[in-house]
């Protein structure tokens, strides 16, 4: 078993394993990761064939573990734990002081062994675009979005926000922003930051209009965000899955 950096030819094998887990992963994500934090893209090889992967990114003093997947016939042999320890060491060496991830119940024990603790649960919500009178996305600078996002995240995520603003649509209002991006014929919403219910409602309704009539919309929201759940439910969104939010 050998751990080394992600190669261009590893992308299709990774996407195959990800599809078996029903993950939504885009090729653009790897181009982004390899540009901004190439240390975080790792593969385990056996006879030079990739059998497991992990990705991570660092924003300021925060790290995020994105995808950890091991080929099904090789699970339970410590490969995932070994990859995790390597990724954590690289994040800490790069200056991360807190590391976050989402996990399934089945994978929870791997992360607990590394010192992660559950802080919340993230629910995935699904809705439908409404179309209608076009909502102008508004004028906003990256500095404005970064400042608002920093209030919620606690670190400057300029690299990913700049990428998302270039790929998608940003809705802005007095007191908030919401980014929508294309995802396999659907619209994925987030990040979404608002200082009050009215701003959050205005942003969500604008995004539903921009998505177009009948377009599937999805987003993730922490369970503790009761206001978001109430708003999403009032707009006809339904729950479609969940993951544990963990941190170290």
Descriptive report:
- The protein is an alpha+beta fold and 248 residues long.
- The chain is built from 8 helices and 11 strands.
- The chain has helices at residues 11-20, 27-36, 79-93, 108-113, 142-153, 158-167, 197-211, 226-234; strands at residues 2-5, 42-46, 49-59, 62-70, 98-103, 117-128, 169-173, 176-183, 186-194, 216-222, 238-247.
- Strands 1-2-3-4-5-11-6-10-9-8-7 form an 11-stranded mixed β-sheet, sandwiched between helices.
- Helix 7 (197-211) crosses helix 8.
- The model has no long low-confidence stretch (mean pLDDT 90).
Blueprint (SSEs and pairs):
Layout: E1 2-5, H1 11-20, H2 27-36, E2 42-46, E3 49-59, E4 62-70, H3 79-93, E5 98-103, H4 108-113, E6 117-128, H5 142-153, H6 158-167, E7 169-173, E8 176-183, E9 186-194, H7 197-211, E10 216-222, H8 226-234, E11 238-247
Parallel strand pairs: 4-5, 9-10
Antiparallel strand pairs: 1-2, 2-3, 3-4, 5-11, 6-10, 6-11, 7-8, 8-9
Helix pairs in contact: 7-8
What can be said about this structure in brief?
By secondary structure, this protein is of the alpha+beta class.
* Radius of gyration, in angstroms, nearest whole number: 19 Å
Strand content: 25-35%
Mean pLDDT reading: 90
Shape: globular
Q: Based on helices, strands and strand pairing, what is the structural class?
A: alpha+beta
Helical content stands at: 25-40%
The order of strands across the largest sheet is 1-2-3-4-5-11-6-10-9-8-7
End-to-end C-alpha gap: 27 Å
Low-confidence stretches: none
């Amino acid at each position: 078993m050998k751990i080394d950096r992600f190669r261009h030819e590893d992308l299709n094998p990774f996407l195959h394993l990800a599809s078996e887990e029903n993950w939504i992963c885009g090729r653009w994500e790897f181009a982004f990761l390899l540009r901004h934090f190439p240390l975080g893209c790792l593969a385990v090889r056996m006879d030079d064939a990739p059998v497991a992967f992990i990705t991570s990114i660092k924003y300021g003093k925060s790290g995020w573990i994105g995808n950890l997947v091991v080929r099904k016939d090789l699970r339970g042999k410590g490969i995932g734990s070994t990859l995790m320890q390597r990724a954590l060491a690289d994040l800490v060496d790069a200056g991360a002081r807190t590391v976050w991830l989402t996990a399934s119940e089945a994978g929870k024990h791997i992360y607990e062994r590394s010192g992660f603790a559950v802080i919340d649960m993230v629910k995935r919500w699904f809705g439908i675009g409404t179309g209608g009178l076009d909502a102008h996305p508004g004028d906003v600078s990256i500095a404005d979005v970064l400042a608002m996002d920093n209030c919620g995240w606690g670190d400057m995520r300029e690299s990913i926000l700049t990428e998302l603003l270039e790929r998608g649509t940003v809705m802005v209002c007095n007191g908030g922003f919401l980014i929508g991006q294309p995802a396999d014929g659907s619209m994925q919403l987030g990040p979404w930051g608002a200082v009050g219910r009215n701003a959050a409602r205005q942003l969500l309704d604008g995004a539903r209009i921009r998505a177009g009539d009948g377009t599937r919309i999805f987003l993730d929201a922490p369970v503790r965000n009761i206001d978001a759940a109430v708003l999403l439910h009032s707009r006809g969104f339904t729950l479609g899955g969940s993951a544990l939010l963990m941190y170290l």
